[in-house]
Design a protein that fits this description.
heterodimer; A: Rossmann fold; Rossmann fold; 33% helix; 27% strand; B: mainly alpha; two-stranded antiparallel ribbon; 2 strands
Amino acid sequence: MTVALEMREIVKDFPGVRALDRVNFTIEPGQILGLCGENGAGKSTLMKILSGVIPHPEYEGRILIAGAEKRFRTTKEAEQSGIAIIHQELSLFPQLTVAENLFMGNEVARRGVIDWDETRSSAVRLLERFRINIDPDDLVSDLNIGENQLVEIARALSKNARFLILDEPTSALTGEEVVKLFSILRDLRQSGVACVYISHKLDEVKELCDAIAVLRDGRTIGEPMPTATLNKADIVRAMVGRDIAHLYPRVEHAPGETILEIKNFSVDHPFLPGERIIEDAAMHVREGEILGIYGLMGSGRSELLTAIFGGFAPDEFSGEVFIRGNRVKIQSPCDAIRAGIGLCTEDRKILGLFLEAGLDFNISIAALGRFFAGRGVVDRHRELETVRESIRTLGVKTPSEFQTVKNLSGGNQQKGLLGRWLLSRPSILFLDEPTRGVDVGAKSEIYQIMNRLKMENKGIVMVSSDLPELLGMSDRVMVMREGRLVAECAIGDATPEKLGALATGNV
Amino acid sequence: MIRKYGILFSLILVFIGMALITHFKTGDWSFLTPENLSNLSQQITQTGILAIGMTMVILIGGIDLSVGSMLAVAGITLASTAEIFEPLGWMGPCLAILCAILAGTALGAVNASLIARFKMIPFVVTLGMLTIARGIAYLVTGSQSIRTKADLFKTIGVDTIDKILFRWTHHLSDIPAGVAAEFASRNYPQSIWIEKYVDDLFLPAILPGGAANIGKIDRDHSLFPWFTVALFVAVFVVWLAYFLRSCRKSAQHGASAESARDIAIKIALVAAGCAFGGWVFVSHQGLPVMVLIFAVIALAGSFLLNRTVFGRHLYAIGGNKQAAHLSGVRVEQCTFLVFTLMGFLCAVSGIISTCRAQGAAPATQGILAELEAIAAAVVGGTSLMGGVGTISGTLIGALIIGIVVNGMSIMALPNPIQLVFKGLIIVIAVWIDARTKRGSR
């Protein structure tokens, strides 16, 4: 066991926060180690240090491979020592092909001239080796998120990594893709690769990993625990330092009148004339009700919400929208917000947040014109007062309300985004993947907020790929497949198997 | 502390550095004379006004390369319509100004609609406008320069507010016949005529020794600019009242309030700034009209960005266009307004530069102005990626560049060398900015 990878007494400070506090960590070949912890616990920071993203002198402590100290100043140096990382945020180049992406930075070339035939055939071999069914000539921008993730993994493995780090690799994968990924990872374990698997999905961690290490508030909690003897509650307790008794605290509440109804709703495909990404959708939401929408990636769930919200150009969609029985014409998000709709978008870093701006800016932006301004002039004091209030009630952990959002953890970013939409006082709130990449503690707080909104008689539509969450929180579930709302289930009748079958069309 | 006021700190460093360098080179302190500093403030006015618009354009992730040419069109429009409207008397120049503003704003609106409505790339659209507008400027005059004659233009270009006020309070018709005849006989042009008159009238009143001293006293000290004094005092008092009120309000609802030390530092800085600015302008005939216009535009721009919903939306668009759209920001509308506003500010800048030069020249006016405006914004911390930037930063950026250029002229460096240094300043400023930002992360 001489080629073990060790991290010793790692300390990393960010302005105002100690992200890692004397973290110790060992992984051996042929082992899959799960790394768990709430968002902000320091998992990603630790892995950034290990992979050279945070270069050598910017942290304290030592990294040892087979007993020899390594100081990575670049990711390239870490790669040369056999460490490959697959980040939570995808880092592919969307305008390039799969093959080009696979060998980016590692091109198959002779004297600087790329050998395209060899590149292509290597790509085919690589994809075949991991049984990934993607054409190497496809543009990455044409792939869905799950396929993106698989390409990314194949790219990391093409570098003959001995230590593979996966940061939330399954957050965008379908069940089938997860199974495929796991079998790849088990093969790698057989061949002696050590793997660090970071995930919030405790079931998966338990299923896949040999042992689980837990980080809390930048510290390692005890020694890695072998998964054989663990149950989920143990892990959660170690992560949050307390029991989370009811993960999905659904409250029973009699729904009221129909607040939002859509009929004949269709959205044109942005690139293919004549094609539609949403076909003839119809649904309604009642006051004090959470409507869950389930579907695979690319089934049009997010597009449906975005289109109702006016996020597409007016000539790209058609259909009727009624709010409390009155026909409304929503042509832009601005109209939607005025009509009392809020859309908490998926993929908060791309569609939601202003990462370089402060938390205050991010929270108040959608409500500015209507609540904090007379004749277009912002009342900064009233705005800040409200923002501070909302940071308190949402429990956003931040040194100040002016903190740059980029520096907040995922869970706190998500709460901030939610705060934005609560501040705009919607009567109908769309939540698109409200807890993706969010830790257990923040998740449960977000569920509490959803329950509070439900009790306040708001109509809520939630899109989620997380089936337990969808079944745990919704009052009614609709299933989307290939741009159509194909079925509706009362929550009592919905089971994961049934929804899975409806979503894939294997009824 | 140094990080927070980093850019201000660099301004002070550059200022002191330039004072010392010019001193070693020329042996006198000509850089530090109020006359030179007042002149410096006028030199940066043209670029400064453009840079304010440019800050907004860059803030939303755009760029406008056509400002120099739009400025030239506005200047040419002013000069040529003033000729046409000359028979209308005092209304002529006013109409000419209106036409110039319309011309600039219209060109801005053309850029704006191509970019906002038809989703074209700002770089390409304005690159096209750069040559189109320059061509128009040539066409209008048949490539000739035009001189401007109207008094109004001279007032804007060379006068200070104190002189204008003096003229208003002492009606021109009150000029004693003898004085008028005397000046008329010496063939002074009218503006100098008034200046002389002002001097002659004031000197005996405020200086011991009376009229006998007239000839010996430097004309700079002739007119004591009470209005400028009052203006600087008023600006400081109003700012102080507003600032303290805002501090008190923040403290009331438990903001992460600024510490007493921060508040004191801020007040001290503003007081020092007002005192210094006051000293410069009071010691040299008062506040020039064009600098006042510049200041008003800067204030308005700062208010727009900091205090209005529109301004906040600009930061949102630059920060994340998609997120802004999905947060209810009317991206198209805001983009249109910003590029149109840029055209308007080009017109104002063009009018001022025409008035200062007392003529418009299609071949030289506004050449490289776009680069200077972009440089001022970037040196002042505006991010070309969009979403980050302030008007105060841009003003300081314009000042830094202005100081360097002014200092180099005092040292009589050849123009090619000046160009090289100007470029270096921009690169160094951005490099320092990138370094400090990386450090704070």
